[in-house]
Amino acid sequence: TLRYKFKPGQTLRWEVVHRARVETAIAGVSQTVETYSKSIKVWRVTAVDAEGTATFENSVEQVEMRQKSSGRMERHYNSQTDKTPPPEFQEVAQSVGVPLWAITLDPLGKIVKRQILKAKPGTESHGQITLPLPQDPVAVGQTWTLAYESELAGNDGTVKKVKIQQSFTLESVHGNVATIRVSSQVLTPIRDPATEALLVQREPSGRVRFDIAAGKILEGEMDIDKEIVGFAGKASTMHYRTRLTEKYLDTPEAAASGAEAAASRPATQHGQPAAKR
User: Fold this and answer.
1) What is the pTM for the complete model shown?
2) Is the separation of the CB atoms in 222 and 182 below 8 Å?
3) For the segment 129-147, what is each residue's pLDDT rounded down to a tens digit?
4) DSSP states of 129-160 as a string?
């Protein structure tokens, strides 16, 4: 049984690193854009009800960003060392160190309520913010899915709804750590390369390691590697590659919680749980 578990007053931190490289060629003209960001994501839990549904404030504690494109100098920003950010990072700088959202999340990872505190309206207004978990207990090798609709804004002002399905497979369980494989598939038939280019960021795949006892994500790695031909005319190509990694940062509070969980854990044999979860 996989469930998120929170405590009032708890603070959780993850280091999030995102790398992207986009190579495009249009009518013989090539361009490469590379971006890098490293941030500390923070959830401060303000309340937890009897069913385990938690409300927390989501913020970014610090951020480091770099951006480089063909023919231009690299631009960078570090919230810890740079007093004045470059214009393209100004909005990011204003969002560091302040609560952006108040989010209410149930034990399965479903958003019950989301309130804007500081974030720009319209950003992250829909969808999941963490791995969705299955309602029922799952065995190793078992898969659960989540289907949702994504809205794409075309250049002509039209909005197209596209159905996407994410699949999650419990790959293994070692001690209290479950490894979950994630894949994404666009279910709506797409015949237009330009629309396909807009969808490319919504098709990640990878793995997530989940702490069953503590009820939190320990780390994850999600990749996208896709080439699209004809996204801006016949003589055009795009190669989109990204990697997103997330790693839980242990704190004194987290270590104490882990020791408490270990003390109350049932006995195991040969590294496997004594009873079925």
Assistant:
1) 0.85
2) yes
3) 999 999 999 999 999 999 9
4) SS----SS---TT-EEEEEEEEEEE-TTS-EE
